[in-house]
Amino acid sequence: MFKLAFRNIFRNRSRTALTLAAIISGVTAIIVSGGFVEDTFVQLRESTIHSRLGHIQVFRQGYLDYGQRDPSRYLIGQPKQVVDLLKPIPHVKEVMARLNFSGLANNGQADLPIIGEGVEPNKEALLGTATTLVAGRALADTDAFGVAIGEGVATALQLNPGSYITLMINTPEGALNTLEFQVVGIFRTFSKDYDDRAIRIPLAAAQELLYTPSVHSLIVLLDDTTATDQATQSAKELLEKQGYSVKPWHELADFYSKTVALYKRQFGALQFIILVMLVLSVASTINMAIFERTGEFGTLLAVGLRRREIFKLVLLENTLLGCVGGLLGVVVGVMLAGIISGIGIPMPPPPGSNIGYVAHIRIVPWALIAAAIIGLLAAIVAAILPGRRASQLLVVEALRHNI
User: Fold this and answer.
1) Which of 94, 150, 234, 350 could cross-link 198 (Cys pair, CB 3.0–4.6 Å)?
2) Could you give the CA distance from residue 307 to residue 295 in angstroms, rounded to a whole number?
3) What is the end-to-end Cα distance of the chain in Å, rounded?
4) Residue 374: beta bridge partners?
5) Is residue 249 included in any domain, yes or no?
């Protein structure tokens, strides 16, 4: 039966080529679209991590829920001790401290509400690979009273590198403290909303402003994003009993989680549409072949072949076509993905961002397997009704087609 089915698919080469072309096109479309979606996930993930979130963040328990109302109650008093616990964890590349504050920035003419961070500049430079400098230079550890400001802050206050601004901050005790800073650079991150209000100053200057040696959070940078869950679990085992909360980046990035969920549903719908189109295309070709082979099936029934064997023959022929089409589609899809990736696809900034990117087509195993399976299933499903109709032909009527 297998030998007969294999020989039958090459009897009418033009029709076989047409069927294979439909399957190959569908499989290639799934590979290219799946690779594009996967690249979107990866680039969005890395931009989210390397703009400011890091891979893991450590806070005092309760800070994420109540820290906005009373941040002074949730300070990490001994950050160095926590850093010493985190650094030996596998895949940890660097641990950096941050002290958050809010207040007013004044350029001598106008005030602007800002959200600020006291950071360790040289360590932050390792993390902020997705942060773009619009003007000036990056903040450095040697900038005792230097400040890096978001693009929106620079526009609102008409500031340039070299300009001076005064920060007015309320200390945890309720006093008002001010310090003057010189703008050293203007940055742009993945989030436009953040850039419209954000400034960064050295950690020591922020601690002087707030009269505290403590910090609000510790940011962990890993050498491999795929190790995030493993490192998070290790950090939780070390720190949660001591009153700390450990959060991986994906629990803090609400926009990323919702975007991934949306794209996955869209890609699932696309796969279903491609499957339906493949079934209809292949079914049309098979119906034509069944009609032309009516006399052949009548002869096979007349010489003693059973009706269920006719059905199996048609199903087997199209299963072979599905296997061949799926494999060829994977080859063509991989080649096309490589060509497109070599050229690149310029993409506009995502919603809420100022930064565009160049998309590529990633070759991912799950997309290749899913595409090949869909191509095979399409050929099999398309053959069921025509095969059933061929198996139920009346022998006498079918034999007349041989005259």
Assistant:
1) 150
2) 14
3) 26
4) none
5) no
More confident residue, 175 or 324: 324
- For residues 193 and 352, the answer to whether their CB atoms sit within 8 Å is yes
pLDDT in tens, 51-110: 788 999 999 998 888 877 778 888 898 899 999 999 999 999 999 999 999 899 999 888
The first and second tokens of residue 179, run together, are 């310090």
Question: Looking at this protein, which amino acid is placed at residue 281?
Answer: S
> Tokens at residue 89, please?
């964890």
Tokens of 98: 């941050």
Of the residues 215, 242, 269, which one is the last residue of a structural domain? Answer: 242
Give 297-321 pLDDT, tens digit per residue: 778 778 777 888 888 888 888 888 8
In a domain, 54, yes or no: no
Residue 19's pLDDT is 82
Task: Map residue 398 onto helix, strand or coil.
Answer: helix
Range of the domain at 123: 62-242
Q: Look up tokens 């041989």; give the residue.
A: 402
Angle between helices 254-292 and 13-48 (to 10 degrees): 180
| Other CB atoms within 10 Å distance of the CB of residue 350 | 17
Tell me whether residue 250 is in a domain.
no
The 3 state secondary structure assigned to 74-108 is HCECCHHHHHHHHCCCCCEEEEEEEEEEEEEEECC
Point out which residues pair with 119 in neighbouring strands.
Answer: 202
Per-position DSSP letters for 288-333, written without gaps between them: HHHHHTHHHHHHHHHTT--HHHHHHHHHHHHHHHHHHHHHHHHHHH
What is the average pLDDT across 357-362?
87
Could you tell me if 144 and 208 lie in one domain? yes
Distance of CA 313 to the CA centre of its chain: 44
pTM of this structure: 0.77
